């Protein structure tokens, strides 16, 4: 399929680079659906007569496969270009929905694990990293803005998929008028089929719109020498194989892991947490379920806005400094939340909103951070390897929060004080991340790729 | 839009307003819808 090859995607002279962000967004908005699974979670529990945990495994498999496929396929994505990567991602993501729907129609949960979880998860990982290095190459003057736009789409995908899925489930289920209505399995199966078809169209639009810049292209007025002046920004290149041998890669890995773990701690528990924080002595919360749902919506907006806003800001402040804000200011805000969050709902909401915007900002800024440290050569593959921090945080975040909360009491009886041990643990994690980020320095030149006039006699060893 | 150039010569950016509008509308309209729907839910927080 030569029409998918990288050579076929080289932009002609005069190509408008602002066509590239919508192509990237088309993919990220589709795969962002992964965060809208709560819409049909209860329906699947009822349909399969399964526990919440058994249904939750579908999402867990998908996120683990995201990290693994991004790490394993990153080099392939860099070598084959964004069109082939987006096309492949579309095939996996859409096949995941189709196999998943078959599992629902035939009442076989393992098929949903295999389809949405395993196959779809591979599509998630490839899709997530597919446009990143291309965007960085098109926007060497504003890499944070460019990757922020795409990765914002991953947050935005859930905002679209949630209301659309709810509306489609009502349309597909004739019994949707009842007060305690839960969508039928048949309706969820049809929803999967519909989403599969729509996502196929959108992702193919992305794949066939995206182009890579010609060798040597640079935007008007862009002077690479000016970029060089920033202390951490290199004009050299480091391969993905060598990047993982550097201290800098692992320091950024720790910073991302700590930032994501702390964010997930709030996101996972968002709705019950705000109700528990304002639970009165009679056991009734001042915050209703509807208000808690509004709070979750606000956090989604904060997550998305942070991805774009903070990442774009990092082009001005530099990546290391903005990570100091995410982790340092984040630690302070988390402490205030733990100790004084229950004093006012306004304070609580503002603190949580800013913390979640830092969580999103961390995701969106990290590709540009990697580009600063390791150059553009295999930044997609390096980003893929770094996303294992996300998978690890996806396990660690909920584990920490749930373990502490289980020790404090039963759901419905928890109060603000019950959350203090978990939140203060997150503060400790953020401080560790802050220190790791503080230690980031330019990559040692022995890891730089050879170029004319500078040969390398042997492969560098792991940095001690 | 700005003018892009290769290392060899300046090349004006093609007038691709139509393509740009379609491309951004395809992603912008659903995103705006999603944000609007979410904000209506958020309204309960301040109601």
Q: How would you describe this protein?
A:
The complex is a heterodimer of chains A (464) and B (47). With 464 residues, chain A is an all-alpha fold. Chain A has helices at residues 20-31, 38-48, 52-105, 109-129, 132-138, 143-172, 185-209, 224-228, 240-243, 247-277, 289-317, 319-340, 345-374, 379-386, 388-408, 416-438; one strand spanning 218-219. The two termini of chain A are 44 Å apart. Mean pLDDT of chain B is 76; it is low at 1-10. Chain B has one domain. Chain B is rod-shaped and about 50 Å long. The A-B interface holds A 13-19, 22-23, 25-26, 29, 153, 156, 159-163, 202, 205, 209, 214, 216-221, 290-291, 293-295, 297-298, 300-301, 304, 349 and B 1-8, 10-14, 16, 19-20, 23-24, 26-28, 30-31, 33-35, 37-39, 41-47.
Tally the helices of chain B.
1
What's the rounded overall pLDDT mean of chain A? 90
Integer-rounded radius of gyration of chain A: 22 Å
CATH uppermost class of the largest domain in chain A: Mainly Alpha
Structural class of chain A: mainly alpha
Number of helices of chain A: 16
User: What percent of residues of chain B adopt helix (DSSP H or I)?
Assistant: 55-70%
Radius of gyration of chain B: 19 Å
Work out the number of β strands of chain B. 1
Mean pLDDT of chain B: 76
Strand content of chain B: under 5%
N-to-C SSE series of chain B?
EH
Layout of helices and strands:
The complex is a heterodimer of chains A (464) and B (47).
Chain A: H1 20-31, H2 38-48, H3 52-105, H4 109-129, H5 132-138, H6 143-172, H7 185-209, E1 218-219, H8 224-228, H9 240-243, H10 247-277, H11 289-317, H12 319-340, H13 345-374, H14 379-386, H15 388-408, H16 416-438
Helix pairs in contact in A: 1-6, 1-7, 2-3, 3-4, 3-7, 3-14, 3-15, 5-6, 6-7, 6-11, 6-13, 10-11, 10-13, 10-15, 10-16, 11-12, 11-13, 12-13, 12-16, 13-14, 15-16
Chain B: E1 4-5, H1 17-46
């Amino acid at each position: 399929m030569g029409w998918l090859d990288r050579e076929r995607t080289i932009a002609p002279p005069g190509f408008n680079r602002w066509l590239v962000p919508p192509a990237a967004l088309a993919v990220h908005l589709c795969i962002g659906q992964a965060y809208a699974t709560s819409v049909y979670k209860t329906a699947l529990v009822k349909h399969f007569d399964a526990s919440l945990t058994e249904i939750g495994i579908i999402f867990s498999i998908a996120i683990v496969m995201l990290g693994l496929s991004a790490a394993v396929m990153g080099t392939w994505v860099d070598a084959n270009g964004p069109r082939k990567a987006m096309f492949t991602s579309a095939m996996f993501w859409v096949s995941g929905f189709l196999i998943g729907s078959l599992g629902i129609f035939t009442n076989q949960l393992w098929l949903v694990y295999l389809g949405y979880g395993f196959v779809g998860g591979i599509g998630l990982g490839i899709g997530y990293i597919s446009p990143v290095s291309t965007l960085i190459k098109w926007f060497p003057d504003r890499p944070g803005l460019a990757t922020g736009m795409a990765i914002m789409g991953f947050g935005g995908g859930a905002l679209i998929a949630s209301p659309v899925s709810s509306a489609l489930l009502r349309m597909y289920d004739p019994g949707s008028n009842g007060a305690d209505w839960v969508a039928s399995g048949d309706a969820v199966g049809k929803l999967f089929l519909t989403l599969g078809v729509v996502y196929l169209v959108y992702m193919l639009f992305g794949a066939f719109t995206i182009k890579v810049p010609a060798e040597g292209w640079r935007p008007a007025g862009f002077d690479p020498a000016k970029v060089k002046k920033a202390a951490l920004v290199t004009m050299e290149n480091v391969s993905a194989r060598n990047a993982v041998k550097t201290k800098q890669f692992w320091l950024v890995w720790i910073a991302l892991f700590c930032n994501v773990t702390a964010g997930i701690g709030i996101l996972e528990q968002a709705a019950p947490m705000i109700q528990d924080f304002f639970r009165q002595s009679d056991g009734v919360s001042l915050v209703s379920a509807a208000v808690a749902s509004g709070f979750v919506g606000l956090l989604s907006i904060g997550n998305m806005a942070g991805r774009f806003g903070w990442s774009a800001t990092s082009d001005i402040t530099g990546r290391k400094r903005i990570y100091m804000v995410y982790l340092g200011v984040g630690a302070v805000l988390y402490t205030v939340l733990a100790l004084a969050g229950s004093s006012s709902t306004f304070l609580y909401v503002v603190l949580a909103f800013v913390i979640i915007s830092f969580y999103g900002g961390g995701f969106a800024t990290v590709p540009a951070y990697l580009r600063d440290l390791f150059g553009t050569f295999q930044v997609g593959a390096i980003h893929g390897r770094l996303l294992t921090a996300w998978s690890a945080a996806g396990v660690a975040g909920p584990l920490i929060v749930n373990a502490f909360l289980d020790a404090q009491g039963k759901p419905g009886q928890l109060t603000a004080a019950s959350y203090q041990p978990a939140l203060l643990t997150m503060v400790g994690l953020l401080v560790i991340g802050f220190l790791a980020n503080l230690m980031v320095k330019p990559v040692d030149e022995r890891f730089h790729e050879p170029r004319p006039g500078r040969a390398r006699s042997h492969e560098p060893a792991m940095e001690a | 839009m700005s003018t892009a150039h290769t290392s060899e010569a300046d090349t004006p950016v093609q007038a691709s307003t139509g393509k740009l509008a379609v491309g951004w509308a395809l992603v912008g309209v659903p995103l705006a819808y999603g944000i609007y729907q979410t904000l209506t839910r958020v309204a309960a927080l301040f109601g």
